[in-house]
Specification:
By secondary structure, the chain is an alpha/beta fold. The chain contains eleven helices and nine strands. The protein has a single domain, classed as Ureohydrolase domain (Arginase, Chain A, 3-Layer(aba) Sandwich). Helix 3 packs across helix 11, helix 4 runs parallel beside helix 5 and helix 10 packs parallel to helix 11. The protein is globular.
Length: 318
């Protein structure tokens, strides 16, 4: 079992907001942060403050600042409807290379999952879906988990050097992820290479474009039905992973994204999908990536993620 406290750094105490009012408790008052609190936790928060993968793919840097910025907004929120015990593990220690960071991140996430806890991962770049997905496969078995990538891109580039666009190609090619249990949600066709789209089509990956999301009464309707069919067949064995890249949300609602677009999910649709993830009893890991505080006007993006985290924590059954 990995020493998760050796592989991580404790969170900055200043992020744990408190009004000092017992009649108005905030999450900063309630969340555990000492090592002794880990065993009793239902949900563990883990940050990965790096954007090397974004830099490698030619994106705008700044996502390394996101875990702390998101925490500052999250811990200001109230404890309303949250019965789960939340523990903040802090941040993965960043290695000399992206590959070293991924290896440490995978060990920490795998250990948390094997301790039968749910985990919220805060990026950082979207490349962390690779170590997160690898940890899911190692903890539950490569055939026993569903991956949902909510993103405006499909992230299956065949680049030689791993980056923030290769993560799901790695998981598929290395057989950590069964393509029949992989869902691409909210992608925008004008951002997708026809070659890479054909790659996932031939593999049998479930594809739910932004246009298809918009054609349903609720943002989660199509994905709910498709996932339901798989859970009916394997309800006792399938665990679920949801990756939320904030580039999937339109820039008006999430200006602080690594790759903003005028088109995308609305804030309410984004929250609806997070709530759907929380509603599934077997959702084990949810990640929020590609938040860039350097461009986040009025902290709109970090506040949106913080609210998403709140809805996840209040929506799960414990």
């Amino acid at each position: 079992m990995a020493d998760i406290f050796r592989l991580t750094e404790r969170p900055d105490p200043d992020v744990f907001y408190s009004r000092g009012d017992r009649n108005d408790p905030r999450l900063g008052d309630a969340a555990g942060r000492d090592e002794k609190d880990f065993d009793q936790a239902d949900i563990v928060i883990l940050g990965c403050p790096q954007d090397e993968g974004v830099r490698r793919s030619g994106g705008r840097e700044g996502a390394a600042r996101a875990p702390e910025a998101i925490r500052r907004e999250f811990y200001k929120l109230t404890t309303f409807n949250i019965n789960a015990r939340v523990f903040d593990l802090g941040d993965v220690r960043i290695g000399d290379t992206l590959e070293e960071t991924h290896a440490a991140h995978c060990e920490v996430v795998k250990t948390v999952l094997e301790a039968n806890k749910r985990i919220i991962v805060l990026g950082g770049g979207g490349d962390i879906s690779y170590p997160d997905g690898t940890a899911m496969a190692e903890a539950f078995g490569a055939e026993n988990w569903i991956a949902v990538n909510v993103d405006s891109h499909i992230d299956v580039r065949a680049d030689e050097q791993r980056n923030s666009g290769t993560q799901f190609r790695q998981l598929l090619d290395e057989r950590h992820l069964d393509p029949n249990y992989f869902y691409q949600v909210g992608f925008q066709t004008h951002f997708c290479s026809p070659v890479y789209y054909d790659y996932i089509r031939k593999l049998g990956v479930h594809r739910i474009s932004l246009e298809l999301v918009r054609s349903r009464a609720g943002a989660d309707t199509e994905i709910r039905e498709q996932i339901r069919l798989n859970f009916i067949k394997h309800s006792s064995s399938l665990s679920a992973f949801f990756g939320f890249d904030l580039s999937a949300v339109r820039a008006a609602d999430a200006p602080g994204a690594s790759s903003p677009s005028p088109l995308g999910l609305r804030a309410g649709e984004f929250i609806q999908l997070v709530k759907y993830a929380a509603s599934l009893a077997n959702t084990k890991l949810i990640e929020f990536t590609e938040v860039n505080p350097n461009f986040d006007h009025d902290d709109r993006t970090t506040k949106l993620v913080a609210i998403g985290m709140h809805r996840f924590c209040s929506g799960i059954s414990i």
